[in-house]
Amino acid sequence: MENRYKISLNGINLELEKTDKKIIVENYSFTPEVIFNGKFYKVFVSGHEFRIEFKDNVIFLDGKEIDFDFRHSPTIQLKKGVQQKRQADIKAAIPGKIVDVKVKIGDVVSDQQCLLILESMKMRNEILSPINGIVDKILVNTGDQVVARQLMIKVKPIQNKEK
Predict the structure, then answer these.
(1) DSSP helix/strand/coil, 24
(2) pLDDT tens for residues 21-35?
(3) What domains lie within the chain, and their CATH numbers?
(4) Sign of the CA dihedral 101, 106, 112, 113?
(5) Which of 27, 43, 88, 106 would you label with 49, given CA atoms 20 to 30 Å apart?
(6) What is the per-residue pLDDT across 80-123, written as a single tens digit (0 to 9) for each?
(7) Which of 138, 144, 149 has the alpha carbon at shortest distance from 103?
């Protein structure tokens, strides 16, 4: 069984593929061993040990809080003809300044379309839509400062009226 995912780790977007025997991240292949002791996970990859904990809906890697978003890659997430039922809440992965809002309320957007530009540590990050949908709410403006996990935009799925 093969699964493809898009993950965001501390604001860095990566492609991940999981097979029965290994995990491939951006063309690097890993065969991790995972041990769970009831409180945290120990993950062993290429001779390195990582401690992963989940507390209060926050993920910690070796004691340091990380920002992590994980979802199925859009090409396999939805089967042809199946409707996306959940809205997408677009949150800031990192603190920064909104330098450009590319959409307005009511705009139809496609999966992976740029919604806004977030500048952090002198780097501009394109914030992309994770679904095909309609922009429902915009909670930030150009020039606004945002904090990590702050809700910026809501995208609702396009409802198909045909039956």
Answers:
(1) strand
(2) 777 777 777 777 777
(3) 3-72 (3.30.700.30), 81-157 (2.40.50.100)
(4) negative
(5) 27
(6) 444 455 788 888 878 889 999 999 999 999 888 899 998 887 78
(7) 138
